[in-house]
Structures are given as C-alpha cells and as structure tokens.
Amino acid sequence: DGGITQSPKYLFRKEGQNVTLSCEQNLNHDAMYWYRQDPGQGLRLIYYSQIVNDFQKGDIAEGYSVSREKKESFPLTVTSAQKNPTAFYLCASKHDNTGELFFGEGSRLTVL
Amino acid sequence: GQSLEQPSEVTAVEGAIVQINCTYQTSGFYGLSWYQQHDGGAPTFLSYNALDGLEETGRFSSFLSRSDSYGYLLLQELQMKDSASYFCAVRQISGNTPLVFGKGTRLSVIA
What we know:
Low-confidence stretches of chain A: none
Shape of chain A: globular
Largest sheet of chain B: 6 strands, mixed
Strand content of chain A: over 45%
Order of helices and strands of chain B: EEEEEEEEEEE
Largest interface: A-B, 24 and 23 residues
Low-confidence stretches of chain B: none
Structural class of chain A: mainly beta
Radius of gyration of chain A: 13 Å
Number of strands of chain B: 11
Helix content of chain A: under 10%
Oligomer: heterodimer
Mean pLDDT of chain B: 93
Distance between the termini of chain A: 36 Å
Strand content of chain B: over 45%
C-alpha cells in the first residue's frame, strides 16, 4: 500500500541531544512538508521541499534542519538549539495534481 | 499577514447538523481545504473548494464564498465518531507552496 511512514512513533530525548525523525513516502510525490503541532494548536510549518535536493524554511525553522537527498525521504533533525522541542511532529507529502496532503501518523517527541 | 479564523470548540448532539466556519485573510488565494484529525492521529483530507458554492461528499459538505473570504464545513447526521478536530487550510497559489492552516475546531458529539 502507498503511504507515508514516520518513525519513531514515540521518542524521548535528553536536553542537549540532537534527534532525527524519519519520513518516507512511496507515493511518488514531489513535495514534502514537516509540521509541528502543540496541544490544542494548529499545524505550524517547519520546513518544506518542493523537489529533491531542494528545501525551504517554514515559519518556525529555527533549531531544526532537513535534507532531501532522495525523493522518497525527508528526515527532520531536531537540534539542541531548539528551545522547546517537546511536540507532535507530522510529515506530509502533496499529490501533484489534486494538491491533497497525505500525512504520516506522526512522531511524538518528549524532551526530559 | 495571513490568518485563518475558526471557532476553537463546537459541541453538537448525535444525529444533528453542525456548521464549522472559517474566514481567511491571506496574500493569495487558490482554494480552501478541510482536514479531520482524531486525537493522536494524522490529519486526513475531507474536501477542497476552489470555486464558489457547495461541494457535497456524503454526510459532509463544504462551501466557499471567495468574495467574502469565507467557507464552512457542514456535517450532517452527526455520529460519535465525528468527534475530532477540523482544520481549514488555504492553498495560496498553484504549485507546491505550503498550505496555511487554521488552528482547528474541536468538535464534540454528545448523545
């Protein structure tokens, strides 16, 4: 089945550590996105990539980094510079024709 | 700036009809989407309006008025499983630029 896979689903990290969240899609979509969601809040854009080997900062990119070396993969690194990293992270890809976003199941990061 | 306004919470009775409004102010507008998200889950696509009028998909309908910068999601014959958060999102221009999301409306369906 086609879809988006995020891993890990739950992650605990100590302060000062970097952590990388995986996002893989087999939908052959060009565009991919990372959003952050805090309790009771909407989706805030961290980074996005419109095509392989290219990416742009979103509204809250500070303390995060990404890469897009393959069309299928768009990993997100939460660095120690991110002041408040505890959140629910959602990865999505966009259907090239309809514009519909397909989301992964999310990764819940907790910093201890 | 750009903003989307939608009510933070709505409560409705099982079997009833509920309307969730969304007003937007963005630098560009191409269309309005709606997504549903159950607690702890992934958002899923419900509908998309690029033209004025009503789009119907089963129990759910979505409406757009471009001149009023306004849209709504209409849920009929409410079921308990419809309890979720609903997000409106603006597609500003064509292509792969990101959607701009509202903060979401938490719908609680009660017996």
